[in-house]
Design brief:
With about 575 residues, the protein is of the alpha/beta class. The chain is built from 18 helices and 14 strands. It has 2 domains: about 350 residues, Up-down Bundle (ABC transporter transmembrane region fold); about 210 residues, Rossmann fold (3-Layer(aba) Sandwich). It has a 6-stranded mixed sheet, sandwiched between helices. Strands 3-7-4-5 form a 4-stranded mixed sheet, covered by helices on one side. It has a two-stranded antiparallel sheet with strand order 1-2. Helix 2 packs antiparallel against helix 10 and helix 6 runs parallel beside helix 10.
Length: about 575
């Protein structure tokens, strides 16, 4: 097993990875609203720093007034604090609100961008062919994009705030701390140097302890996504598992995958325990550290109580600014893992598109629609180059019906995929008619989790068809018992029987009115009477429709004009 603290090796630097993910939004059509929001947020961030400087001055004046028992100054400063506090609250609230607005705007754009990249050129399908099912694009598109955008904004704006805060409070701390003489050497602004040394030491120690968390976090996200994928897969195939009595096997599989999560998380726990312990000591000791360092000047009456409190507050701000990476280390570790995952996602998309041949480039379109469909010496293979069919030659004229037969698993369904332009692993020549409006019905049609109306009209939107059209075709395909459920939202793949799902697919055919129809065992769950009724309805309602079918039922021969045997490479008239 590989080291869980390691991450994939890439020649790209961290900044290049980050910038390749962040840049597209800021040069997109939505850049100006985003830039406007960002500028406003930065202005509010600088306002927060300014108010913190005012609060620091208030601390000195307030504690001096307390030490001098100056009651009028006390009440004046209480009123001043109230005004500053109200302004501070409004600035902080709107800073957060606008940052969240920018975050969701950026996330919306980035989600659309990555979904488009994933769906382009059927990359999602190519991944499935190449068995890249553990890559979990669902997590990368949902969870990782959200984390990337949110963390980018929080870290970037946080760093900006701390840099400005550091600049402001270093000047204050330098001024109020004064010089100190140690072993005959006078050190000006010694509290600034004390804060710098304190923060550098703390940052170095925490970095040494926390560095392995980057690899562990990356691995944890991958294990979590893989576990979730298999849970979803069990849910989607629950009936098959139940019929196979596969509960024990699924239990073993799921618990084995969760064991990976458990062991890796224990390593994260151990590393975080050390990190939290060190950070807690670092932050707690920082409470008394400025008093210890400034005490000699206070007891020498070189500074008053107000000055001491101002030094403490300024030291805390300077220390926090110097310690930005200390406090954000866990976030940075998770952020680094997210960048790796998203960058790897885009790399995988690009690699899949480059590896696969351009399927549509190999398909020739006849100049005339009447030319029909022709396959010349077509050979098919699996993604691993294992051969399936070879030497396939047949021709189908428009309006004809052809039955493609042969043993199961020989590659008949793959032949349909090649004709439809989604299977990249073939050679030979495929000629399709110009302007061909083809439709493929697989044995198990896709059922979206949506209204039944949307499932019936998929992939078109339901508003493209009248309710009378839909209800009439439901009656034709013996689905009238579902008429009252048209607007119910369900996971129809689990609600409808296999036969009902196949009848839903035929409703789509009658609605979309293709001129070429490829049926891949599309009536296997229908009884022979319903099967005959559907084929007859296709001829009656869609005159001129060309039908090419794959099926093993002998009764289908009576519903086609010719048969092509892919094993014998022979054709006969029926």
């Amino acid at each position: 097993m590989s080291d869980p603290t390691s991450v994939p090796v890439s020649k790209k630097s961290w900044f290049k990875r980050f910038w390749s993910l962040a840049k597209p939004f800021w040069v997109s059509d939505e850049k100006w609203p985003g830039i406007g929001l960002l500028v406003t947020i930065i202005a509010l961030t600088l306002g927060v720093v300014y108010l913190n400087v005012q609060f620091n001055t208030w601390y000195r004046e307030f504690y001096d007034a307390m030490q001098n028992l100056d009651q009028p100054a006390f009440w004046r400063l209480i009123k001043k604090f109230g005004v500053l506090a109200v302004i501070y609250i409004f600035v902080v609230v709107y800073q957060q609100y606008l940052q969240q607005l920018l975050q969701i705007m950026w996330r919306r754009w980035m989600t659309a961008h990555l979904v488009d990249r994933w769906l382009a050129n059927r990359t999602y399908y190519l991944w499935q062919l190449e068995q890249q099912i553990t890559d979990n694009p669902d997590q990368r598109i949902s969870q990782d994009i959200n984390m990337f955008v949110a963390t980018t904004l929080s870290l970037t704006l946080g760093l900006l705030r701390e840099v400005v805060m550091l600049t402001s409070f270093v000047a204050i701390l330098w001024q109020v701390s004064g010089p100190i003489t140690l072993w005959g050497v006078t050190i000006p602004g010694y509290m600034v140097w004390a804060a710098l040394v304190y923060s550098i030491v703390g940052t170095w120690v925490i970095h040494k302890i926390g560095k392995p968390l980057i690899g562990l976090t990356y691995t944890q996200q991958r294990f979590e996504a893989d576990f979730r994928f298999h849970l979803v897969r069990l849910r989607e195939n629950s009936e098959s598992v139940a019929l196979s009595r596969g509960e024990k096997a699924e239990n073993r599989n799921l618990l084995a995958r969760f064991q990976e999560i458990y062991l890796n998380f224990r390593e994260i726990m151990d590393r975080q325990k050390q990190l939290v312990f060190t950070r807690a000591f670092y932050n707690q000791f920082a409470v008394i550290f400025p008093f210890l360092v400034a005490a000699p000047r206070f007891f020498a009456k070189e500074i008053k109580l107000g000055g001491l409190m101002q030094i403490s507050n300024a030291f805390d701000k300077v220390k926090d600014s110097f310690s930005f990476f200390v406090d954000a280390y866990l976030v940075i570790a998770e952020f680094a893992a997210v960048i790796l995952r998203l960058d790897g996602f885009l790399d995988s998309v690009q690699a899949a598109q480059e590896r696969a041949p351009r399927t549509t480039d190999n398909i020739h379109h006849n100049d005339f629609a009447a030319a029909g469909l022709t396959l010349k010496n077509v050979s098919l293979a699996l993604p691993n180059q294992q051969p399936l069919l070879d030497g396939i030659n047949f021709h189908v004229k428009p309006g004809e019906s052809l039955l493609v037969s042969g043993p199961s698993g020989i590659g008949k369904s793959t032949l349909f995929r090649a004709i439809s332009g989604i299977w990249p692993y073939w050679n030979g020549k495929i000629e399709v008619p110009a302007g061909m409006r083809g439709m493929v019905l697989p044995q198990k049609p896709y059922m979206p989790v949506d209204t039944l109306r949307a499932a019936l009209t998929y992939p078109e939107v339901p508003t493209e068809y009248t309710e009378e059209e839909v209800l009439g075709l439901m009656t034709l395909c013996k689905l009238e018992h579902l008429a009252k459920r048209l607007d119910d939202i369900e996971n129809w793949a689990q609600v409808l029987s296999p036969g009902e799902q196949q009848r839903v697919a035929f409703v789509r055919v009658f609605l979309h009115k293709p001129d070429w129809l490829f049926l891949d065992e599309a009536t296997s769950a229908l009884d022979e009477g319903m099967q005959k009724q559907v084929y007859e309805a296709l001829k009656l309602r869609l005159p001129g429709l060309t039908v090419v079918s794959i099926a093993h039922r002998a009764s289908l021969r009576d519903l086609h004009q010719r048969e092509y045997d892919v094993l014998a490479k022979a054709e006969r008239t029926l």
